[in-house]
UniProtKB/TrEMBL annotation, chain A:
Name of the protein in its database record: Rieske (2Fe-2S) protein
Organism listed in the record: Arthrobacter globiformis
Name of one Pfam family that matches: Rieske
Gene3D superfamilies: Rieske [2Fe-2S] iron-sulphur domain
Lineage, uppermost ranks: Bacteria, Bacillati, Actinomycetota, Actinomycetes, Micrococcales
InterPro entries reported for this sequence: Rieske_2Fe-2S (IPR017941), Rieske_2Fe-2S_sf (IPR036922)
GO molecular function list: 2 iron, 2 sulfur cluster binding; metal ion binding; monooxygenase activity; oxidoreductase activity, acting on paired donors, with incorporation or reduction of molecular oxygen
Record SUPFAM superfamilies: ISP domain
Sorted UniProt keywords: 2Fe-2S, Iron, Iron-sulfur, Metal-binding
Rieske domain residues: 11-105
The keyword Cytoplasm is annotated on this UniProt entry: no
UniProtKB/TrEMBL annotation, chain B:
Family matches, as PROSITE patterns: NIR_SIR
Cofactor or coenzyme needed: FAD; [2Fe-2S] cluster; siroheme; [4Fe-4S] cluster
Record domain BFD-like [2Fe-2S]-binding: where: 441-488
Similarity comment text for this entry: Belongs to the nitrite and sulfite reductase 4Fe-4S domain family.
Cross-referenced NCBIfam families: nitri_red_nirB
Keywords (A to Z) from UniProt: 2Fe-2S, 4Fe-4S, FAD, Flavoprotein, Heme, Iron, Iron-sulfur, Metal-binding, Nitrate assimilation, Oxidoreductase, Thioether bond
Function: Catalyzes the reduction of sulfite to sulfide, a step in the biosynthesis of sulfur-containing amino acids and cofactors.
Name the UniProt record assigns to this protein: assimilatory sulfite reductase (ferredoxin)
Domain Nitrite/Sulfite reductase ferredoxin-like, chain residue ranges per copy: 577-639
UniProt lineage: Bacteria, Bacillati, Actinomycetota, Actinomycetes, Micrococcales
Heme keyword on record: yes
């Protein structure tokens, strides 16, 4: 389950169903704030939850298969890499998947 | 800050020459691009120093950043990645202080000594600060509220200062290009602006007094006050700006001063290092500093054959010549100076000027046309049948041709008037065809006609595509028309009419009408179904979701399949997201009428949830600001009032005046009608927000003339309906749609108009754009006279939407999705909005 000393490793965040399809929810994980999105194809993506532009709540953003758009000023970020496609700084991206019992699992470095 | 790019290459084996560039602005970066384009990276290891802590950006676009049309992040020409990818070491935010020409070292303020084999100085210039009293604090800094206009930091400083503390008035010192741009930009922050200019007329470097007078009229028509022949003698204030003092004229009160009174080349480094400096750093025709084989200079910091330039076009030419010599690509290349034909958009006005402003000899011909009411002025000076000078204001159509005739000394038509206008003769098309391949189309980004035609022939046949590839038209924007003409000409009529521009949303390649019929024919009831059926490769597109959701709801009303992820966060949680990620709650208060009971409940809620700010809105309601997402359902429950829809692209409010019941002037019951209208149309979604008003008499206290739909009671119990008004970022008086006899008809026609707007307007197109685009006559024919026989259909469609209304705040007891109101702002939070 979780945690080396620095909080690295795998963290279980609870059932996938907590995240409606096509939306995101924010989690606090070992002191980091992570937005997890559930795409319409069922796959998951995880990026840092605070917009590098002016601190917007990324989990409230609008997504498609590739990007999330911050709700405050509509900067867009690639969901895989966290890189901005609109010239803002990057988000951090984290490996994330659903385990056998349909729980969201995120890996921290 | 030192942003470091790949050091990987500077291994001991690296025998390349060290190329150091001082100044990371438009000229320095362009010179490096030109060097790289000539394979210069093989011979050179490149290091750049820039005083500003950024990559290179398009300084010209600062005016757009100031006006808010462009985000500072959007004007970068070279991102930090660019430096990295090209193996350039960039020291951003580091200032060079001195060059040791003998030891070939550059000393910078981070204590570093950097060796060079080749040096390029591209330090540009800065705003020149006039000697007026009170400009500086005793500590030697600019008085708070005084700004130069040169860098991103200046611009952002100005924006945040203009927005805080209710700054109301600004004075711009200088009525040239920069000053007028600053004035226009500040206006968009709601600041009143006076331009104080010491010259006898505006832009006196570019035009004579007659043109200046026409320009003044155009500028004043924008609401900018102009004072010419006015010298600023002091900045008043002491601790911060409170006004400016003028010679022999009354003081002007203001909270902000922008100094745009000319520029001064940055030559300090060159001077202290013993390089030849007159007005600027002297260079020869190879862009080399005389007697220094390895030192070059380029851009606004140089003086070439006695000329110092203050615009970008010359520096593109300089950078190319410099690169030819640095790389040895073309040792015969020379720079012979630039003819300063400038073509600009200043404060929204097209300005072109070249050569002489006025005739100088008795034998010079002068062709002048002036139409001040339209802001058009054209003046051409001809000597020996050649153009030696021209000024054009407010109409840029002949500029390309005139510039070329001026540059090349082309013979002119006998009929001089055809220099000014197209008189059924060879039109613009031919004009474009005649343009030489080398002719510069976009001065801001240095793009020639050939670069555009090559791009088109390479297969890119949309205007926006060509603009993206070549950057043409992406500077001040004055050349867009010409770029379009060149693209059309090069594509031989086969221009793909920029399809994307007409799409309703970017991700589905259909215009609104076609999109609606496809949706209807295929029975697409959800946003994901639309993407799957109509988007390229069935791909979702985040930017398109909200527009589609609104359209589908409008079309299907109760049958719409509501996928919550398609909504913008505001519509998911029925509140308006604020800059700190909290939300604002605005309960419905129909017609702006409330009761002691409601007020008491609102007050209790504000106490109970520690609402940081309670504010009256412009729409006559009460706004509870700073509510965390997780509190929203509880707040709504305790309020027990329905949503006021202050967050959506939807029908918002109806402002009313007190009207007949109480007002001694009233002729109609405006409050009652306003409440009826709001009750009927509450919450219906639309392409953009709809704000309404009803006033009880033509005194118009509810400001009905500047509303999307505004109603005014007039004598004899009649009602006027205005549509397409606005008083926000845009000001427009609404057009009179109809005058009717009874309130019932008002509601009917207002509803019919709103439905027509919902079906035909583009996404995010407010009525103030829609109404003039479609035309009031057409709207009147359709809506009042039912010329197209669709009135009944419109009424029915609107009725369906009305019937499907439910109060979104009812979701408080039964969240629609899991975690709908869970916080997205975990743990410690973000920028805090100050609480009063
Ligand atoms: C608001 C605005 C609008 C404009 N609009 C237009 C327009 O519409 N059309 C047009 O043609 N021109 C326009 N201009 C002018 C145009 O921007 C300049 O001609 C152009 O930027 C000059 O390029 P440059 O590289 O010589 O100078 P700059 O772009 O100023 O670059 C010089 C850089 O060198 C840095 N520097 C200076 N000294 C040192 C040092 N000692 N060590 C390290 N770094 C140093 C500076 O910080 C700066 O970043 C406009 C300018 C402004 C400010
Ligand atoms: C007997 C005459 C009038 C009295 C006593 C009066 C009083 C007021 C008061 C008390 C306010 C509210 C101020 C506030 O919110 O702080 C107000 C607002 C306003 N008044 Fe008047 N007024 C009168 C006539 C008029 C007239 C004739 C007009 C229009 C020509 C007008 C236009 C306005 C407007 C536009 C507002 C602001 C509305 C808003 O808050 O959105 N008033 N008036
Ligand atoms: S618009 Fe006319 S009726 Fe309404 S409050 Fe103003 S003066 Fe009175
Ligand atoms: S805070 Fe995210 S885009 Fe501005």
């Amino acid at each position: 389950m979780s945690a080396g000393l620095s909080g690295g490793g795998l963290h279980v965040l609870g059932p996938v169903d907590q995240i409606p399809v096509g939306e995101g929810r924010a989690y606090g994980v070992a002191g980091e704030q992570i937005a997890v999105f559930r795409l319409r194809d069922g796959s998951l993506r995880a990026v840092s939850a605070v917009c590098p532009h002016k601190g917007g709540p990324i989990a409230d953003g609008t997504i498609d298969r590739d990007v999330v758009m911050c709700p405050l000023h509509q900067h867009a970020f690639d969901l895989e890499t966290g890189c901005s496609t609109t010239g803002a700084g990057p988000l951090r991206s984290y490996p994330v998947f659903a385990d056998g019992s349909q729980n969201v699992v995120v890996r921290l470095p | 800050m030192t942003a470091l790019a790949s050091r990987g290459r500077s291994t001991p084996a690296d025998t390349r020459r060290r190329l150091v560039v001082i100044g990371n602005g438009m000229a320095g970066a362009r010179a490096v691009e030109e060097i790289l384009a000539r394979g210069g990276a093989v011979q050179h290891r490149i290091t750049m120093f820039g005083d500003e802590p950024y990559g290179n950006y398009n300084r010209i676009m600062l005016s757009h950043v100031l006006s808010g049309e462009e985000d500072a992040g959007g004007i970068f020409l070279n991102s930090l990645d660019w430096y990295r990818e090209n193996g350039i070491t960039l020291h951003a935010g580091v200032r060079v202080e001195k060059i040791d020409r003998f030891a070939k070292l550059v000393f910078s303020d981070d204590g570093r000594a950097t060796p060079y084999n080749v040096l390029i100085i591209a330090t540009g210039s800065r705003s020149s600060m006039p000697a007026v009293e009170g400009l500086y604090t005793p500590g030697g800094r600019l008085l708070p509220g005084v700004f130069a206009f040169r860098t991103i930091d200046d611009t952002q400083g100005m924006v945040s200062y203009a927005q805080q503390d209710h700054q109301r008035r600004a004075v711009v010192i200088g009525g040239g290009l920069l000053g007028l741009e600053a004035a226009r930009g500040l206006q968009s922050h709601g600041v009143g602006v006076d331009v104080v200019h010491s010259g006898g007329h505006l832009m006196n470097a570019q035009m004579g007094p007659d043109g200046g007078a026409v320009l003044r009229r155009s500028v004043e028509a924008l609401g900018i006050r102009v004072h010419t022949s006015s010298r600023t003698t002091a900045i008043l204030g002491g601790d911060k700006v409170r006004g400016v003092q003028l010679r022999d004229q009354p003081d002007i009160d203001c909270d902000l001063v922008v100094v745009a009174a000319g520029i001064r080349p940055n030559v300090e480094v060159a001077v202290t290092s013993g390089l030849p400096v007159e007005r600027a750093i002297v260079v020869d025709d190879h862009m080399r500093v005389p007697d220094e084989d390895e030192i070059y200079a380029v851009g606004e910091c140089v003086q070439h054959r006695g000329e110092v330039y203050g615009l970008v076009a010359p520096l593109w030419e300089q950078a190319a010549v410099l690169a030819d010599h640095v790389t040895g690509a073309d040792p015969s290349s020379v720079y012979l100076g630039s003819r300063t034909a400038t073509k600009l958009k200043v404060a929204g006005v097209d300005v072109a000027s070249m050569g002489l402003q006025a005739p100088e000899r008795d034998t010079d011909e002068h062709v002048v046309f002036s139409e001040p009411s339209r802001g058009v002025f054209k003046s051409i000076v001809i000597r020996d049948s050649k153009i030696v000078g021209a000024t054009l204001l407010g109409d840029s159509r002949k500029v390309a041709y005139l510039t070329q005739a001026f540059d090349r000394g082309l013979p002119l038509p006998e009929e001089r008037v055809s220099l000014l206008f197209d008189l059924g003769g060879p039109g613009e098309e031919a004009g474009v065809a005649e343009l030489d391949g080398d002719a510069q189309v976009c001065n801001c980004n240095g793009v020639s006609k050939r670069a555009i035609t090559d791009t088109v022939r390479g297969g890119c046949t949309t205007l926006s595509g060509v603009m993206d590839v070549t950057r043409a038209g992406k500077g001040c924007g004055s050349c867009k028309l010409l770029v379009r003409q060149v693209v059309e000409w090069a594509a031989d009529g086969a221009v793909d009419e920029d399809p994307a521009a007409a799409y309703y949303v970017p991700g589905v390649p259909l215009e609104k009408a076609a999109l609606m019929s496809a949706i209807r024919d295929q029975g697409l009831r959800s946003v994901s179904a639309v993407f799957a059926a109509l988007a390229p490769a069935g791909a979702e597109d985040a930017k398109s979701k909200m527009g589609l959701a609104s359209l589908l709801k409008m079309m299907w009303a109760g049958e719409y399949i509501d996928e919550r992820d398609a909504r913008f966060v505001n519509d998911r949680v029925h509140a308006n997201i604020q800059r700190d990620g909290t939300f604002s709650v605005v309960p419905q208060m129909k017609g702006g009428v409330t009761s002691p009971e409601q007020l008491r409940r609102i007050a209790d809620v504000a106490d109970k949830y520690n609402i940081p700010m309670v504010k009256l809105t412009g729409g006559q309601r009460i706004d509870l600001l700073g509510v965390p997402k997780e509190d929203l359902p509880k707040v709504w429950a305790d309020l027990g009032m329905p949503s006021g829809y202050a967050y959506g692209k939807s029908f918002r409010t109806v402002k009313t005046c007190v009207g007949q019941e109480f007002c001694r002037f009233g002729t109609g019951d405006s409050t009652k009608l306003g409440i009826e209208i709001e009750s009927r149309f509450q919450g219906i979604e639309s392409p953009a927000k709809l704000k309404l008003a009803v006033s009880g008499c033509p005194r118009n206290c509810a400001e009905s003339l500047v509303k999307d739909v505004g109603v005014v009671a007039v004598d004899g119990g009649r009602w006027e309906i205005y549509i397409g008004g606005a008083a926000g970022a845009h000001i427009r008086k609404g057009d009179l749609l109809a005058t009717v006899d009874d309130p019932g008809t008002v509601t009917l026609l207002a509803g019919r108009f709103m439905q027509y707007y919902r079906e035909h307007a583009n996404w995010l197109e407010r009525t103030y754009s829609f109404v003039p685009r479609v035309g009031i006559e057409h709207l009147r024919a359709v809506i009042v006279d039912d010329a197209e026989g669709i009135a009944a259909g419109l009424d029915e469609a609107m009725q369906r939407s009305v019937d499907s209304y439910t109060d979104p705040w009812a979701e408080r007891n039964d969240p629609f999705t899991p975690g709908q109101f869970r916080t997205s702002l975990p743990l410690e939070v973000l920028p805090r909005v100050p609480v009063r």
